[in-house]
Structure formats: structure tokens, C-alpha cells
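Bench notes, afternoon.
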Amino acid sequence: MGKKPLYKTLYFQVIVGLILGAIFGYLYPSYGAQMKPLGDMFVKCIKMLIAPLVFVVLAVGIAQLGDLKRVGRAGAKAVVYFEIVTTLAMIIGIAAMYLTQPAAGMNIDPASLDSSSVKMYMAPGSMPTFFGVVLGLIPNTFVGAFAEGNSLQVVVLACLFGVVLGNSGAVGKRTTDMLNDFVIILFRVINIIMYLAPIAAFGGIAFTVGRFGLGSLMSLGKMVAVVYLTNIIYVAVVLGGSCWLAGVSLWKYIKYIREEILIVFATCSTEPVFPQMMRKLEKLGCQRSIIGLVLPAGYSFNLCGTVLYVAMGVLFISQAVNKPLSLQDLLMLIAIMTVTTKGVAGVAGIGFITLALTLSTLDGLLPIEGLALLIGVDRFMSEARALTSLIANGVAVLTVARWENAIDLTVARRELDRGPQPDLVVAEAGAGSANTQMATSH
């Protein structure tokens, strides 16, 4: 098969969408600001397929794996990994703010802050309790988890369903084969939706430029620059180290998911690329059951970009209003963030809501009205945190798969050297069970 012409690749088309969107938003800002629904439409189309895709892939993977102890062990390792990398994100975010002091000298009087623009975030809810989180894993009804799009609840159902399938003999095998066919259908539907990706990129960037101006893309202030630089350092050091442990190159992995990176950059959300990430990770030789277990959980528990942003946002407000935090306060902040940054979805704007929740649980230590200082540039920082979380979740799958001997490194390195092959998406979906059996044997 000949190489696909550049202009027919999704990567090229999304770049064209980004460029045209920026030009349109600059020339016609009022119309550009109205293009946001184009990106929202694409996100909704993908979100409607995430729950059934997670359910089918994970249920089939567990049924074919047959070793429940291994599933539990992989889940426990994933949780430990999530805690380690997100705690490192908190520490790095706090250290970056103390080193750079982006808000030093602002001398903001908290009483002078206009809270009208952040009223919707003033009462985001109380901090979730341990039992509240556990109860939240159990859906009220079987279909309720799918209707609400709650990925963690879908994971719980898929685990139960997969266990039963793996122990139901001929009936379980027939049902597993049917679900495998259903996966192929889902991926074909996703292939159709992906034709909308360049349009979504156009709409997302046209909205950003039309709303905030082209100049704001280049000069967003010291805080935004520090956020981006810190995310880059985190990806290079922490996620680079994780890739080294997994036996793959971080740079080649980033190039491998370049199309997904562009889509996330345009939409400020990691959810639109969830199906493609599952597909590409399986193409890298990762076992399907590991992908189905770690990736959905990562979307709620491994949002490293959001963790970095919340830590830095709290310190920014602290510096701006001249209320320095003591060591005890910082330890309390880390403890609170361990809870508030878990169980949130990877959608646009969730980082700002999480920041509001964190501030509201700091016992009045900092004024929640300080959110008004960040709301104007939050859109730009949401791009950085979404990109970091996207990269982190794929790295988490690779790392846990390596720990579980559930990845063929020869295949992974070959595919990373080769780069993404957009022509093979349907074939990849159909080859899922074969890949699963191959990976299990290692």
C-alpha cells in the first residue's frame, strides 16, 4: 500500500483547520467568537461513544484474559502509579511558583476583587469524602452509568460483566465474539466522526482568537508562560522517566500521538481523542484489558495537567493578595488536592472548577474571589493542562503494561519508529483479540 498523500492525513487537515480558524477569528472576531459550537459538536459526538467503547473493550479484555488476580494486580499498580505522578505534579507546580513568583508585586486587596465573573464557581460543592467516592463508583441503574457518561461506573460494570463472560463457557464465548464484532462497528462510527476533527479545530481556534485576540496567543502574561514551561518540564522529566521505565522513547511517543495532540489543543478537552488513544495504544502492542482498565481510570485519577494548574493557581492567588502559605499550609494543600483533583472528567474548564473547589476547602485561607484574576486567561492554560493529561494517560498505560509484562516492546518500538498509520484503523480494531492473545503470552 502506497503512502497516503499528506493532504489526506488527519494531521495535515487539523493543522489547516487551526490556521484557517486563527485567520478567521482575527479577521472576523465577532463571528469567530460564535464558532465554539463547532468544537462542542465534535466533543459531544465522541463522548456519546466513550461509555459503550470502554464497556465493550474492558469486558472482552477481562473475559479473554481469564486471570482475575492479574486484573486486580494491574489495577492496584495503576492506582499507585497515579498517586506517585500526581503528587510529583503538585510538588513541581508549587516549586515552580516559588522560583518564578509570577504574581509578586501585584499587591491585590482581596476586598477590591470583582466576584461577579466567578459567581458560578463560588459554591462548587463540598469536598468529597472517601465513602462518597466509593459510592460514586456504583451506578443507580445499569443504563444510568451509560446515560450519564460516567466512565468509572462503566468500568465497574465492565469488570463484573467480563468476569461473568470469562466463566460462562460456550455462552460466554459466543457473547465475547459478538462484542468483538461490536468493537469493529464502534470504531467504524468513530472513523466517520473523525472527519469532523478539522472543522472542530477550526471552530475551537476561531473562538479563542475571536474572543481574546490574536495577540493573546503570543503574549498571555508571566503566569501563562510559567504554566506552559512547568508543564513542559513535567512532561520531559517525570513522564520522560516513566517512558524510560516502560522502555520507549517519550519523543517518539509524542510524535506518534501528534494528531490527538492537535485535536486536544483545539478543543481543550482530552475526551474527543479517547477512542483513538485506545486504538493507538493497542497498535503499540499493549494488551487490550490493560488499556481498558488503566486509560479510563486515568481520565479521572491521573489528570496531571489539572493537578499542576491547581497547585500553581493557588500559589498565584496567594502571591497576588500577599498571603504567603506556611509549610503546614502547603502540606494541607497537597492533602486537599489529593482528593479534589480525583474523580473529575477531562473536559474543558474542569481545571478552573477544581481550583475553585480546592480554594473553598482551604478553610478561608485564601479568598475564592481570587479566581477573578485567572478567569480571563484560563482558556489558554486549559490547553496546557489538557495536553499534559493526554500525554500522561498514554504513558500510564505503557508503564503499567510494562510492569505487567503486557506489552510487546518489539512491536511498540517498531510502531513508534514507523509513526501513526491512519489507513489501518478498522483493521486494527478487528485485530484486537489477536493482539490481546499475543500480549497475554508474554
